Backbone:
């Protein structure tokens, strides 16, 4: 699970690693209701498209992958229950996030910490900054992601959001 | 798109038919937020699991299928815009529903009417009644669906919902 | 206040009657979030446009009219408070509805019953039926309303909604 | 748990019965967000006041009673999780409702069926009808409830709601 | 469109400027659901009243002005669609905000940049600070606005909000 | 009223002080929908349990106490009306908060400022920090609260929330 803003090579590496251990993987796009925001510039639909195309162009068997979306909840104590209602039955959650682990543990959901690739390098926040500044970000994401972001002129979108004083969800 | 309460052989036939014309198909589970209700007894997660398993056991190439969920909106005039924000880019919507066609048309979305199999026979409302009454419903759904519904004791759930005066979402 | 689905000559008559007694009138479009439904086919924007154009073509002084919208609330006990927060200060509410009168009375809001024109004739539910069946409905609404409804092909919209089994807001 | 529209002698009997078996009881007012509706005429606050006063005037030890409110949820599959987040820890739920029992069972919550008093007689729907028609309803509710309903002129409220075509939460 | 917290002479100047080019103007009060907050101290109703009175006291023809409100949306990708559903048909949006321009552009809505008056001087954030500190703010707003703010004792409201640690919408 | 994250001896002192002046007290747990957040780590249910147990172990008469919950509203102008709909009738609100006082005053609700105990010492924000750092916080809260927090391993929960970059309700 992740916000995948955007999906990068670190994420793709995790998918491949998990598929070595598991028959099937659910890739869950969280914060699905947010978009055109500094930390969430891409819509849920765009994120699914980037992930789907990335898996397709790499050697991942899509037969084993289910890509789904989940909206954030405000009553966090019921999040694990909400998760179960929106996903097919799953046996394990891969997460390196202690907060997620705590939330799931009370519901008896097993959490495994995956082996991350270099998290300083493969970091969505950093990649978004590089897209804006024109740094060499393309090598950090699957080809399908960089070509998608260029097609929708993502640099323009991220720059405008970044320079804007308008924070439509803040109050 | 459909509520898929449950996914039946008529739905499966449509998936196969559409895949003859298209490279990829998005199967969209609507009314995703509803469950344990008379017309919506199964959770979004259960519906995805039934669809995913049905496609897998039949000769459908899962590489070409994306299964997603969508919550109902109350401001219907923005529904097509919401649809676009939550899905990967699509070229056409298959629907035999004139109401859906009208809503999409104003957004310039092309709608094609598929050739339905016998809709009196393959009808989710009727199948739910047959599950409750113990009629021979299993032949109307993929094997993966009938075995899933039996595993979760769906007959018991549907019967209790059907006999209950409690309508938690009514007011 | 009213849903104005659509605004008819009975409504227009009330506006004129109230303006004889008051300096200014607020015309409040309620159920503003609903549209493309059997009882609420027109969007808030379309309803405002029909009202605005009707007032303009008749001899009503728009300087004295404020047209606003209000979404329905589910906690009805706070409705009068919500009303106050969304409207400029008002001295009186015109309503023939005892339910509305009861809700406002506890907040110390004065309610006056207007003199209605023939309510069997000037009745939005009946007018919507006549639009669908092709009866002579145009004479029951201001010219601006009939020409607007024809321009957006309202007959087609109302007919499709009426024939549809899809009730997107029901569950 | 119950909507308590209004709290009657059958409810009071259950409270006393449960307190014979348990150290403490949580009385949960459900559908808390609804009011001024045909099936939910009283606000959450009014219902708490009626229950609190009824317990106080009878021989129930308020030290052992916690009265709380709960809003209805639309994603019913997470209801038991929501229940747990909003209540102090509880060991058992008393309910004669098979639907509620089914929802709680999956979360490992024990459900006990209480022994009801005459449910045809002590029935909130029937009591609301009797209030409107002026039948002898006072003997079916605690004195605190009948005097409260008279004080707020409940007969008038229920009659107006009952006669009204305005259904503010319907669409 | 704007939050108009409060409506100042810069806003009034824009209304006059736009009415030189257009037959009618819709003045849209955004963030309509927020009030009694540091950046949004006035209710939607108060803001409409201030704008209406300002236009009335100046030489603006109210026949050409429609003042409406809009609540903020969290799924920003559907904002332009929501805008269309809530407003009468419009031909152009006046905005100097690149973020708004980007959001509207994808829906084919034409955006024109108006010529602003001195934005350092006519600035709602600055005016709110001046109201609190007692600086000479009255000359920056229409007379109708300054007299309204004085009538409701706006200085007191803004000061209390400003000094308060209570941020009811934060979490 | 308060968030009671957690309920401390300053709060308990206020309850006792108010009960000297009043027959009954409503203790209102606000921000009820939030939990597992930095400023709101405990669920509504946990907070009620801590308060209930604290009153029980001290010499407070529970017969005179009603503990209720309230969710935060975003349209603050209707907050006092919402408050009234969710609570039994009350004669006075005890609050030292000028912001709360302002909101209630317009609804004609009398507000009294209680005499606080040492607010630098008895301060929930400070107590949460002390729980994380292992300082001697137990003496600042009722015994029932410290034993409850230890039982649910509150130190672990607060530490994980505090160290986490995941802010599920932010956007």
Residues:
């Amino acid at each position: 699970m992740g916000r995948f803003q955007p999906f990068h090579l670190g994420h793709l590496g995790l998918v491949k690693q998990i598929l070595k251990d598991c028959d099937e993987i659910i890739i869950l796009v969280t914060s699905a209701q947010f978009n055109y925001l500094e930390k969430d510039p891409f819509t849920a639909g765009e994120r699914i498209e980037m992930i789907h195309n990335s898996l397709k162009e790499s050697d991942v068997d899509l037969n084993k992958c289910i890509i789904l979306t989940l909206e954030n909840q405000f009553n966090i104590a019921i999040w694990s229950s909400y998760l179960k209602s929106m996903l097919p039955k799953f046996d394990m959650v891969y997460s390196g996030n202690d907060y997620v682990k705590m939330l799931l543990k009370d519901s008896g959901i097993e959490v495994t910490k995956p082996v991350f690739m270099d998290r300083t390098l493969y970091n969505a926040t950093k990649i978004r900054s590089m897209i804006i500044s024109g740094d060499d970000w393309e090598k950090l994401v699957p080809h399908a992601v960089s070509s998608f972001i260029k097609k929708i002129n993502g640099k323009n979108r991220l720059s405008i959001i970044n320079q804007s004083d308008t924070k439509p969800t803040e109050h």
